[in-house]
Every structure is written in structure tokens, then in C-alpha cells.
Fold this sequence. Notes:
By secondary structure, the chain is mainly alpha-helical. Helix 5 runs antiparallel to helix 7 and helix 11 runs antiparallel to helix 17. The longest helix has 31 residues. The model has no long low-confidence stretch (mean pLDDT 89).
Amino acid sequence: MDRDRFGWSLVELGERLAGFGVSMLTILVCYGASKIGTIAPYRLLPLTALDLAIPYWPWTVWIYGTATWAVFLAWAIVPSRLEARRLWTSIALASITCAAIFMVFPTTYPRTLYPTPDDGSLTAIELADLREADTAANCVPSLHVALAALMALSGISFPFRTTRVRRALAVLCVAWATLVALATLTVKQHYIVDVPSGALVGALAWWSARRLLHPHRAPFWARYGRPLALLTDADREAVAKLRRNVESHQWSLDEIAWPERPLRPISPLMERLLNEVVYIEEIARLNFELLRDGSHDEDLRALYDLFADEERRHAEALRRVITAHGGRILPPGLGNALVLSQFDRLDPRSDADVALVALSTPVFETFLDAGTIPFLRHHPEVKGALFDALEQRISRDEHAHLALNWIVSRHLARTSSPRRALRWLANPMIHRGIFAVPFMSLDVYALAYRLGFDFRSLLPAFTRLWRLHHRFSELASFPLWWLFRLFVACGVIATTTVLALHRANLVMGALWTTFSRVTRALAIALFGRDLLARRALPPAR
């Protein structure tokens, strides 16, 4: 699957609308700034013979005004996130360039020679509104022509899969941009010189955006390559030893004595909780696959591949537990859906993405797995030999996962310069994760609380995480670690708050589980039911 694809889920539609809004805001801010102050006085350019020969056709204002709609349509059809970033960058570059020229070389047009018709027609009203909003100043170059040129070039370069679509779009883009350029002259908004100068600005902005945002060039917060490369003999030896140990303890689902008859039914709350834990295991699998693809060392790649297989077994085993108890496979809640959707954007070539996943995985495995799996093992709805056997294997696997994750996290902390580590904080995936984690925690622990989970069991895990930089001194000066300490602090605050409310009988667990049910419905509406297929996960029933 193309991880850069820009689809049509509600979330992606919202992103397209946001891109259109930001683009229009960029244009208006730059154009408005050029009106506030200029370095030189406005000057009236002489009308050339060609300017005078071009007819005045007020009705072409309708063509002139299509530029806004063209920006909207460009965002509606942009096929990939890379092209979306290029589209906005080219619009910003063209707007900034034109605004700078307007301030340094302000010009005006003699509109009084071409008065607005006074026949009360829609065309006359539209033209009057245009001239009131868009004064006769700032002619050279034409921002309208610049935008038309860059959007036409963008549309031509959009990598649609079929040749017929690309050719048809190219013809439409060229025809439309030509009509807009002519309309700037027939509406008497611009001099003839404004058209080629505007086209040049638009073409340069389009070209510059493609140069700046090359598919093989990393964004400013990242560097591309194979980010995980162990540099010390001690780290390599520890990873090789761990690999041998993990390989000697591999297991299969067939080793577990699965019941031949259906087990006692589970409650809807337990059904939902088990499903959320399944998706947490699948997220861990995807994390390990990304780390595998971003690893340079053979032992690291092999270990992460083994870990991904183990997480897949954990998820599949829990699905079998659900079905053995007569439960259904449900779609993920909002928190897990948000995280699953983000794998479209995580790039194993990016040192920023790899560092984020490498450090976040042990934090959230400690927070989520350490809290839920032992609780489930002792819960009367699923307690028994089956879950005992499963929990023993999952716990053994998770110990190995944590061991490697902390080796890699300490390695990143030792080998990353302060400037590089601070640059990683600009990674937008961090901000998306900050938004998703509260919903993920609510999906899990609101259900667990209703089933009798004791939140005091989380405090030792939080305490170990909070003090971990005392044990591993490399983390003390690592900016990403302090960001995750902030998550730990939020977890401690949330846990102690729940405990205090519990003692006061004010938790209202039913309210939070209802809220979790609503957010699951919202996740289905936002991401569609194809989210699981995009992650190669079994469909919900």
C-alpha cells in the first residue's frame, strides 16, 4: 500500500478542507500585508498599444473569479500528502513573492477609463464587488495569474494512475489558466506585463516547491537513512545475546490447549476491553515492523521481526479467546483508530519517526500491557488454564521486548546530539500522538474500571518509569525522554484523581464507558471500516 496516499475518509476530507483554508488564509495575509505599507509610492504605468487594443468585457469577471474555486478543487483532487505539501508550499511562495514585489514596486491601474456597468445585472454587481474588495493597486505581477499558473502546473504533475485522467486534467488545467490570464486583461484589472510576470512567479513557485519537497528529501525535523545502527560493541553484544535467547523461546498458538467446546459467555464490557487490548497488540506489531525496517544491524532486524511475529500471535490468541467465549471482533475505539491511522505517515527512513517509536513503545507497553494483561488473567470472566498459559507466554515475550527497547532508547540518547534531539520534537507525529493517547487510555481503563480494575496497580509502573533516568543516566539529557516523562506525570495525575473520585463514589464509570462507546462510533465515521483492511487486520463483525 502507498503510505503517502491521500484518501477520502472523513478525517482526510477534514484535512483537505483545512489545507484549502490555510491556503486561502496564506493568500489573504500576504496580499493584505502588501496593502498595509509600501516602500515606494504607487505609480501608474503607461498603457501600451496592446493594452488599449484588448477589449473591455465585464462578463469575464466570472472567469476571473474562478481562482478561489480552483484552489478548492486542487485540494479536493490532490492524490497524495507529498503533493498536498507541495501545493501549499507553492501557494505560499507565490503569495510571499508577489507581496514583496508589491511593497517594493507598488503599481496601480487606471480603472476610471473602464467604469463598472450600471445596468444592475449580476455581472455588474459581481464586478463592483470585485473592485471594492480588490483595489486597483498592486498590479505587477498578477497574483491571479501566478496562482493560476502554479495550480495548472500542479494539476498536470499530479501522479494519477491512468494516462487518460492525466491527459484530460492537463488539457483542462492549461485551458483554465489561459482563460484566467486573458480575463485579468479583459476585466481591466491588470496591464499586459502583469500576465507573463505573474506566470513566471507561479512557475518558479511550483518549481521551488518540488525542489524543496523532493520525495527522497527528509523534512527539516528528520534525516533519512537506516536510523538504528548500533555503534558500540557492548550494545551489539547485548542485542546478539538477546536474539539467541528469544529464538530459543519461540512458541506457536498450537501449543496452547484451546477448548473444544464454547466457554462461558463474557459480558459486553469484557468483550470490548479484550478487543481494545487486541488492537494495542497490533499497534505494537506495527511499531516493531517499522523499527525492523529502520534498523541497520542484522541482529536488530531479526529481533524486531521476531517481536512483530510475537505481537501478531498475542493479538490472534486474544481473538481466539474472544470467540471461545462467544464474543465478537469489534472495530477499534477512537484512541486505537487514531494510532492505527498514523502508520500511513510514519516512515522507517526517518530518524525522527524511528526515535519516537523506539522510545514510546516501552513507555506504552509498560502503561497498557502491564496494567491490563495481569488484570485479565485474574478476572473471573476469563480466568482459567487457557488464559494462564497465554499470559505466561505474553509476559515472557514482553520482558524481552522491554529489554531491547531500553537498549535502543539508551543508544539513541547516547548517540544523538542535543540539536538533533531537539529537532525531533518538531515531528508532527508527536503532536498527533499526544492527541490520541488520552482516548486510547480512556478506551482501555474506563472499561477496565467497570470490570473491577484497581488503579493502584498502575502506580508502581509509573514510579519505575518516572525514575528510569536515575538508572539509565543517558536519558537525563534526552529531550524525548522528558516529553514521555510528561506523559507519565499525566498518567499519575489521572490515576490519583480516579482513586480519589472512587473513594468519594464520584467516578461515574457508566458515563465514561458510554463516552467510550460514542467515540468508537465516531472512529468508524471518521476512518471508515477500511481502516482494518489498510492495516491487514481481520475485519470487525
